[in-house]
Amino acid sequence: METVWLRWATLEGELLPTAAEIAQQEHQRAEQERQRAEQEHQRAEAEHQRAEAERQRAEQVQSQLQQTVRNLLQTGMTVEQVARFTGLDVSQVEELGDK
């Protein structure tokens, strides 16, 4: 049925929203919040993956350094020579050579 409905308005002439319009606005706000939460989740997941990749790279570098120290010590270099060559402290060379 087609009919003319009256609407409430402010003194300035601004129409007040109907219940359906309020529900639509709330639905849109909820959808925007859901999308924001999803984006935040994706950012957090990307950050987690970046941190994991960085951890793995650090482990790889540590392993390579350890192998380098071992190889140099096996060639007959002294701990002090390896320390000078690599820029590590003598205690770091000793620790890496013992692992």
Explain what this protein looks like in three dimensions.
The protein has three helices and no strands. By secondary structure, it is mainly alpha-helical. Helix 2 crosses helix 3. The mean pLDDT is 94.
Task: Show the helix and strand layout.
Blueprint: H1 19-74, H2 79-86, H3 90-98
How would you sum up the global shape? rod-shaped
What structural category characterises the helix and strand content? mainly alpha
The average pLDDT value, as a whole number, equals: 94
CA-based gyration radius: 33 Å
Unreliable parts: none
What's the order of the H and E elements? HHH
Assembly state here?
single chain
Question: How many H/I helices?
Answer: 3
Strand content: under 5%
Profile the largest sheet.
none
Share in helix? over 70%
Ends distance: 86 Å
SS elements, strand count: 0
Précis, in short:
Helices cover 74% and strands 0% of the residues.
Highlighted features:
99 residues; 74% helix; 3 helices; mainly alpha
